[in-house]
Specification:
2 domains, Aspartate Aminotransferase, domain 1, single chain, alpha/beta, globular
């Protein structure tokens, strides 16, 4: 008879001599390994000198370094020279940071409707938004694109919330399955929250165009649903203003919406864990919403981290630092667009087909190549090229020398 691991664990605990103490930790079960973290470790353990890391989702320059942006360096130096205390910030973070983020994302004039709190990164903002939904509307269903960032469904499941998916990516064309998306979202009910990637869809890189965004807005408004925007890559797609345009359109149309945003990518401050949650609603209810957001911060981590938030505020409020930050961010964006076009061209030459032309049309750091798990495994084993098993690649992990290497390897496994 075969004994399952959980039975073995129970038998082990039963057989152990009792010392009168309750063995709480021994009741824990192993958690499934995170695929991306596992991939990172596999890459580190690979002794090959010509290996290529396209898995981890951080921006890298041509040398493989994730640089500290010039404006961030300058702000940090200024902060070091002028900072006089390390005492706690407020539960919601510094008001100046929240105001800066509202303006960056929504433009001027939206502060009256916006309740907001600083969070530990964009992930913290997503978690707090879901907590707010659960508290305000326990029966609400959260709709996610298929595919989406794996943390979205993971957090929702952990919180015990209801969720559903809507079709998003067309693996054949490399674009958005808009007909499938609209058909699935027709099932949304009043009060449901629909999570939308504001720009640079993760993991596919395929974005809705302006006409499609408007159609989605029409549908959600007719259904009485709440837009919930994840904006992790503003400035990485078509520019700061263009990337914010869909979110601003939704904000102008809907009486209520949620926005979870991150400064990890566009300010390059990944380890500072700098994010914000914005809840837009009726101006007369702003104080109540703000109080609930602060309450949730208090329950989860009390005071949010401040270092990254303060750097963002300093850069936003200083005309010179802001201009330099925007210029360097544009350099980053254009570099990724150049790499996209170079890869699409190299794949066309290597495969003698237009199968991968969509890579140039995608935006942000990621594209899903449409390879099978077996083909992805062959790329890893035979060529030392690491990508997520669904063939999501980080475009910023490439450079001029590795683009043709990837294209040749892909042609060899398909």
């Amino acid at each position: 008879m075969t004994i399952c691991p959980s039975q073995k664990a129970r038998q082990h605990r039963k057989d152990r001599p009792s010392n009168g103490l309750h063995a709480m930790l021994e009741t824990l079960n192993p958690q499934p390994a995170d695929k991306i973290l596992t991939l990172i470790q596999q890459f580190k353990d690979d002794p090959r000198s010509d290996k290529i890391d396209l898995g981890v989702g951080v921006y890298k320059d041509a040398t493989g370094l994730t640089p500290v942006m010039r404006a961030v360096k300058a702000a940090e130096k200024r902060l070091w020279e002028t900072e006089t205390t390390k005492t706690y910030t407020g539960l919601a973070g510094e008001p100046a940071y929240n105001a800066a983020m509202v303006e960056l994302i929504l433009g001027p004039g939206m502060g009256g409707r916006a309740a907001s709190v600083a969070t530990p990164g964009g992930t913290g903002a997503i978690r707090q938004a879901l907590e707010l939904i659960r508290m305000a509307a326990p029966g609400a269903k959260v709709w996610l694109s298929d595919p989406t960032w794996p943390n979205h469904p993971s957090i929702i499941r952990y919180l015990g919330m209801s969720m559903a998916s809507y079709r998003y990516f067309d693996a054949v064309t490399g674009g958005v399955d808009f007909a499938g998306l609209m058909a699935d979202l027709a099932g949304v009910r009043a009060g449901d929250a629909v999570l939308l990637h504001g720009c640079c869809h993760n993991p596919t890189g395929a974005n809705l165009d302006a006409v499609q965004w408007a159609a989605v807005a029409d549908l959600l408004a007719a259904k009485g649903a709440i837009p919930f925007v994840d904006l992790a890559y503003q400035g990485f797609g078509d520019g700061l203003e263009s990337d914010a345009a869909p979110t601003r359109m939704l904000a102008a149309r809907f009486p209520e919406m949620l926005i979870a945003a991150s400064c990890s990518k566009n300010f390059g401050i990944y380890r500072e864990r700098t994010g914000v949650l914005i809840a837009l609603g009726d101006e007369t209810r702003r104080g109540v919403t703000q109080g609930n957001l602060a309450f949730l911060n208090r329950q989860n981590f009390s005071f949010p981290p401040d270092h990254g938030a303060r750097l963002v505020t300093m850069i936003w409020e200083d005309a010179g630092l802001r201009a330099d930050w925007m210029a360097e961010l544009e350099e980053v964006r254009l570099n990724m667009l150049h790499l996209r076009q170079a890869l699409a061209d190299a794949l066309r030459r290597a495969t003698n087909s237009d199968r991968f032309d969509f890579v140039a049309r995608h935006r942000g750091m990621f594209s899903r190549l449409g390879l099978s798990e077996a083909q992805v495994e062959r790329l890893r084993k035979d060529h030392g090229i690491y990508m997520v098993s669904d063939s999501r690649i980080n475009i910023a992990g490439l450079n001029a020398a590795t683009v043709p290497v990837l294209a040749t390897a892909v042609a060899g496994v398909i």
